[in-house]
Task: structure prediction
Amino acid sequence: MEGLIQIGGAVALLVLAMFTGSIIERRHYASIRAREAQFQNLPAIPYELPAGDEQPLAEVRMVMGSTVVSIDYFKQFLFGLRTLVGGRVSAFESVLDRGRREAVLRMKEQFPDADIIVNMRLETSTVSASTQKALNSVEVLAYGTALKYRK
Amino acid sequence: MILTTVNFVPGRKILEHYGLVSGSTVRAKHFGKDFMAGLKNIVGGELKGYTELLNESRNEAINRMVTQAQSMGANAVINIRFSTSSVAQGAAELYAYGTAVRVE
Result:
């Protein structure tokens, strides 16, 4: 009987995670797409300015944005199944994708009037927790140098 | 203090190099925040408590780097890089480093 309750609890948690997790992911993607459209005129490039670029500058500022995204219980369950056969873990890919795009957007939000962000770097690290098994989250940091040209 | 991630200060000439400056901080997580994050982790999404904590710590690392650069007489730090590593369960080290320079 006790075992049944335990299994029932785990299943209920899994179903809860599946629904809320997918709702959160869908909302997040909608918000990311909307904000990315807003910033389509502010490119972020991963290299320094080409030597020929000698436009006079009005402002130079370092910008950074970061986010910690967690991997929900259901995705972790999928991952557990996936490890049996190996291969691509698409459940985790979307989490990292969301994290990176969110971090880049937050970086851009620090200086929305900039013309370009050069030498952007992305860094990903896992945030370990006191209870390793229960917690899996990833921190993504985006940083670069925002330039505003004098017009 | 001008901070950039490129190896020059756009639009200005570098007068003098002072070498590497760095700042780091090791932070542990707040028990309450950790507990809340544990709950939030069931359903996924952003862990705002952690984002804030890491941002604060990173700013602290930057401040330490800037203080070091100032004491050398620099007015800019170029080519800044960040690195994060977890040193223990529940603690992370945030490290910022760059090159201190004086620009016109």
